[in-house]
Amino acid sequence: MKLPKSFAAMDIETISLKDFDNIQIPIIISTSLDGNTHLIKIDVEKLKLFVLEKNIIGINTLIEQMWKNYLSFIESKKIETIFVHNLGGFDGIFLYNGLLKVVDNIKNLNTIIDNKNKFISIYYSFYPSKQRDIDDKLIVISWKDSQRLFPVSLSELCEVMNVPGKTSVYNQAFNDISLFDNKELYKEFLEYSVQDSLALYNALNNAQKLYLEKYFIDICDVLSASSLSLKIFRTHHLDTDIPILKNNVDSFIRKSYFGGATDYYKAYGKDLYYYDVNSLYPYAMVKPMPLNLIKTHKNMEEVKDFNSFFGFVKCKVTTPKNMLKPILPFKHLGKTIFPLGTWTATYFSEEIKEAMKLGYKFNFLEGYEFDTYPLFNSYVVDFFTQKKNATGAQRFICKLHLNSLYGIMGRKQELIKTVNV
Amino acid sequence: MYKYVITSIIHSIIEISDDIYVLLISDNLNNNILKKLNIKLNSDYKSYPCLVNSNVAIASAVTSYARIHMIPFKLNNNCYYSDTDSVILGNKLENKFIGEELGLMKDELKGGVIKEGYFLGLKQYGYSYFNREKGKIIDKSVFAGVAKDSLTLLQIKELQQGGQIKKTIPSKFFKSFKNLSIKIKDLKITVTANREKKLIDNTYYPLIIEKNEIKFDFIDVLLGKIKCQLLKIKKIFSN
What we know:
The complex is a heterodimer. Chain A is an alpha+beta fold. Chain A has 2 domains: about 5-220, Ribonuclease H-like superfamily/Ribonuclease H (Nucleotidyltransferase, domain 5, 2-Layer Sandwich), CATH 3.30.420; about 245-260 and about 275-375, no CATH class. Chain A is about 35% helix and about 25% strand. Chain A contains 12 helices and 16 strands. Chain A has helices at about 45-55, 55-75, 85-100, 145-150, 155-160, 185-215, 225-235, 245-255, 280-285, 350-355, 375-390, 390-405; strands at about 5-15, 25-35, 35-40, 80-85, 110-115, 120-125, 140-145, 265, 270-275, 290-295, 310-320, 330, 335, 340-350, 360-375, 415-420. Chain A has an 8-stranded mixed beta sheet with strand order 3-2-1-4-7-6-5-16. In chain A, strand 1 and strand 2 form a beta hairpin. In chain A, helix 2 (about 55-75) crosses helix 3 (about 85-100) and helix 11 runs antiparallel to helix 12 (about 390-405). The longest helix of chain A is centred in the middle third of the chain and has 33 residues, at about 185-215. In chain A, about 40% of the residues are buried. Chain B is an alpha+beta fold. Among the domains of chain B are: about 1-50, no CATH class; about 115-210, no CATH class. Chain B has helices at about 1-5, 30-40, 55-75, 155-160, 220-239, and strands spanning about 10-15, 20-25, 80-85, 85-90, 105, 115-120, 125-130, 135-145, 165-175, 180-190, 200, 205, 210. The interface between A and B is large, with 115 and 114 residues. Strand 9 of chain A pairs antiparallel with strand 4 of chain B.
């Protein structure tokens, strides 16, 4: 068995400064590794003074000093992976801002950002000694978002991973400078900051063991639940090559990529029933999947029998006139709606066949024909069967991987990165 | 910075301090788009594409099969509302559709029946039902923009009749990627229903599309971005 990579868990505590338009500033950085927690704190006495004086430059110097202390602590630990729960939505903003001001060379600080401007990962590379030796190895520290890996709250994660979670709860009074004047409250706050990173460390430690034992995968090597799913799928289930589509094919088919159907039909009702499908997407994944592009039809007249065509078609659609619940999606002002009328769009052949049964008329313009393959059957059946009898962490893992694989197939080619100048 | 200005498409520029700037730039851009852009602007934007492991044909087929599976539930059984994997129906489903297996339905309310439900638009609805475990009637609501179940059925009813509801969301995070900062403030919002479909006698009628909308062109978006960032760079250099 592979040895687990060592990692740390980190959490930043902040307070709000009322006199500076409620800006949040970091005051404690908590790091847990090997079961120990280390707190790096801002200089509280000076902070109180600077806030009183409304000295923002002074406050910023204190924050910078805290980040300096943090960085030298982290560099000394030679840890390569640091997990932060909600790096993307919260901690990453403080971390990146802080690191930018204290690293030796900003060129060595890089990030990956998603299309909502959330941090996926922040990484910093450096040589351990300032006078570089020939055999000095470049060290790369990556801060990763554990919430991207396990998209649940920290308490839920602790519960499913069967580790003690936080015993103290977040107190709204923590979020103010007056915190430091109340001894009891400050003690409670310090306790809380230790628990946050320690609970995360313990939960991830269990998760790491579980994934190594069962799937031979180290959670330190992935960035998200879907990339973890993809890794499990590739290592244990994939028995063929999945082609990567060429740019023009990708952009043709992407037009047929709609999300789930949401629609409303009646305004008010009494005595109604509410049903939901067990694992709808996993159910969809065991249907025949398009695999290899076998033919491009610039002229769809050469397709004699549409029933035997499998793939994606650009077509002119005319819906039935008086239908109350149309079934073909259409993108309208950024929303997916189900309208009536006539338009040109691209759809998956199987959805077209269903629409034909309901009286939709089609004029086919261009098509990309695929062969089919039972790509996900063993993956889905395996996790679904396990899930039925599983509890706790195992059940959580099954649910996670049943739902997070298909989405990665729809990733766009374009990415966003940062450069510091 | 000049090096990046002429070779990369910059999404935004963040000023960290007097001498540090962070540029958010597009990576792995489609070569065809770049070619078109370079011809149009006589520019020299570069991309060194690496392939992302993805296959949109598979993703599209999966979501399409999922919609297909929901069709009969939408069309039959007097459907009031449908979401990705759920439906609210006027009739009880036959037993053959219910079960533990993949793709079968389960009763979301565990035997409970919705006493009253109001459906106002996409992700805008509310209902009340008798919860057996708790032994009382419970209001449920989904309304885009506010927390789940935070509106009562009475409020949903008000919204349906064209009313407005003012709400304060306490301690909301306001993130600024531009300043790399976060503020926490209370947020005051006004909730109103905004349905697009026509309502006649309790029934919503679908929208009608006469012709396609003007196509949204990715290149125009990029052009807008480039122009905006060039102006900003000009400002930085002239300071």
